[in-house]
Design brief:
This protein has about 200 residues and is of the alpha+beta class. It has one domain: Orthogonal Bundle (Lysozyme), CATH 1.10.530. The chain is built from ten helices and four strands, in the order αββαααααββαααα. The strands form two sheets. It has a two-stranded antiparallel sheet with strand order 1-2. A hairpin with a 2-residue loop joins strand 3 and strand 4. Helix 4 packs across helix 10 and helix 9 packs antiparallel against helix 10. The relative contact order is 0.15.
């Protein structure tokens, strides 16, 4: 079923090609980031493939590995968040007046109560994934996360992000595991592509 979708997409978007034998299917020719669209899709392989130009772009802009960008997005959205599909918010970035005054707010109720009432938190609503990627890269390049660039293992990078306050939950180990999953799957796919060329 999913291969049929990719086959159809190759006619709609001829600038995208996929290898049918690799797991996951890896984008070998990517469309520009400014034409990339956000979708609700909970399939991890789809998310690795579809958003790979985004991971690559933010990684190039920040010096962090692509796998970290994937791990943050996957942990925040799992491919099903309307914050991603409707507002292009790739990292659940909260709206701050001094930083995001040019963007709209997206109000989401996220289990915060004041005086017994569920309140809404404001997140940034970006007009495009490109603008979201630029803003996300700016956030990751801030002084707050600079020290995390000296680490090379997924566990150390994710621990550093937790200490720097990127996320308040204790699931940094899951982000590290997601980084390893991304690296393994993309590595397998690249090896398969190389083998297919021989």
């Amino acid at each position: 079923m999913i291969y049929a979708l990719y086959f159809l997409l190759s006619f709609i978007s001829p600038e995208i090609t996929y290898t049918a034998s690799a797991d996951p299917i890896v984008v070998t020719s990517v469309r520009p980031l400014d034409t990339l669209k956000a979708y609700q899709n909970t399939d991890i392989k789809f998310n690795i493939k579809h958003y790979s130009p985004l991971y690559r772009y933010v990684a190039c802009e920040t010096g962090f590995p692509e796998s970290l960008i994937f791990a943050i997005m996957w942990q925040e959205h799992r491919g099903s968040s309307s914050l991603l599909s409707n507002h292009n918010n790739i990292g659940n970035v909260k709206w701050r007046k001094n930083l995001h005054h040019k963007y709209q707010k997206a109000c989401f109720k996220d289990d915060k109560y004041v005086n017994g009432k569920l309140i809404c938190s404001n997140f940034v609503s970006y007009p495009s994934l490109k603008e979201a990627a630029d803003d996300f890269a700016k956030l990751l390049n801030s002084n707050r996360y600079q020290r995390c660039k000296k680490y090379s293992t997924p566990q150390d990078i994710c621990k550093c992000f937790k200490k720097a306050g990127y996320h308040t939950d204790n699931s940094h180990w899951q982000r590290a595991k997601n980084m390893e999953t991304y690296e393994l799957r993309t590595s397998q796919a690249r090896h398969q592509q190389t083998a297919d060329r021989l």
